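Posted in: Structural Biology > Protein-Ligand Complexes

Title: Requesting predicted complex, heme C in pocket

I'd be grateful if someone could produce the 3D structure tokens for the following input. Sequence and ligand are given below.
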Amino acid sequence: MMNKLNIIGASLAVLFASSGCVSRGNDTGYEYAPDMYYSKGYEPYNQADSFAVNPYGMSMRVPVAGSIALGKSAFIYPMANTGEGYEAAATQVVAPPEGIDLVETRGKYMYNIYCTACHGLEGNNDGKVFQKVASLKPAWKGYSDDYIKNLEEGKIYHTLTYGKNNMGSHASVLEPMDRWRVVKYVKLLSSKGAVSTADTTLAVANTMSN
Ligand code: HEC
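-- Reply #1 --
Done. Output follows.
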């Protein structure tokens, strides 16, 4: 009798133990006291349930239209993506007055990543893409061409932001200050030809947090 009870007890124990270990994939299991985990207070960054009043059922409010995140005003580019916008950029889009630093380090680094495939390391329009698909090439030969020498920086900034014909927008990969650094680097290539700086560019790029 005692033996039988022991066996029943033991198998019950095994059953209990194993039921807790059953793998349930992404199932989070039971919550015994949800109001201890989820605040009843209205907390904008804490989304436990769908809220009836706010858009998309968010517990957070959407920012007022036209809001600019703190410190991000440089990301607002006012010129329209049109021919008129491009022409106006020539005079209305100017580099920040405090000067653009790191042109030959960060600027060159970004240029080498994003521009050389087409325009080539020294801006001679001899990158791999232009070599393979010559029909993509612009009419001007390279940055040493008078066209680029005389091209207003604002127009280059505009082209980097929106793209132009076969050149795509680079706004998603170059934040505004980097766009200016690259614009200045293009002008440097245009006036001097190749710029050789020690290859500290990677280190500089990595220490930039922007
Ligand atoms: C996919 C190839 C490609 C890449 C990558 C590319 N470009 Fe271009 N770029 C072009 C073509 C094509 C044009 C000619 C556009 C036109 O006027 O039709 C051009 C035009 C330009 C011009 C003249 C702009 C103007 O306003 O007329 C500049 C300056 C320039 N590119 C710089 C850059 C820089 C800097 C980068 C890297 C951030 C870059 N490009 C990346 C293909 C490319």
